[in-house]
Write a structure and sequence with these properties.
Helices cover 21% and strands 28% of the residues. A hairpin with a 2-residue loop joins strand 8 and strand 9. It contains one helix and nine strands, in the order αβββββββββ.
């Protein structure tokens, strides 16, 4: 009767005798496939949009202290025809109200006096004209040019 150790040693001996023939046959097959196979390295290509994007690591709430554009109304302009750069725009968070007889009255709110180049909240004054003020409004890193106009009187019948 054969012991498990004897069976293992016989199996190991047969494997050692057959190994060179197996390795030689496999190496010929491998060399044939290696000659046919070509390694290809491909790089991933990134394309970025042409416009500038906002930095995602800057918080959305920046140091824009003050009212937003939607909260502001133009209640007056101190315009200087001699020197337009010295003109002053009066903007308010309250605005104006019109009575039935057509008279205007101020609505409670904070008033700000701005010159060209000054910034309030997300609004930067670009140009002051007689009855309107052109501003740049910055929202989420994008600038949009808008106009604030003085409301002269109520339009229409009611």
């Amino acid at each position: 009767m054969r012991t498990p150790q004897a069976v293992a040693s016989v199996t190991l001996g047969v494997a050692i005798l057959l190994a060179p023939a197996f390795v030689e046959g496999q190496s010929e097959e491998q060399s044939a496939t290696a000659a046919e196979t070509e390694l290809v390295f491909e790089r991933e290509i990134f394309q970025y949009p042409e416009f500038t994007r906002r930095n995602p690591f800057i918080p959305l709430d920046t140091d824009d202290t003050g009212p937003r554009f939607d909260q502001l109304s133009l209640i007056g302009v101190m315009y200087s025809a001699d020197d337009p750069a010295s003109s002053v725009a009066v903007v308010s968070t309250g605005g104006v109200a019109f009575a039935d007889d057509g008279t205007m009255s101020a609505v409670a709110g904070e008033a700000f006096y701005l010159k060209v180049g000054q910034r309030l909240g997300n609004v930067t004054v670009v140009q002051i004209l007689r009855e309107q003020v052109i501003v740049d409004v910055e929202e989420f890193g994008l600038k949009d040019r808008k106009t604030l106009e003085i409301i002269q009187s109520r339009q229409g019948g009611t």
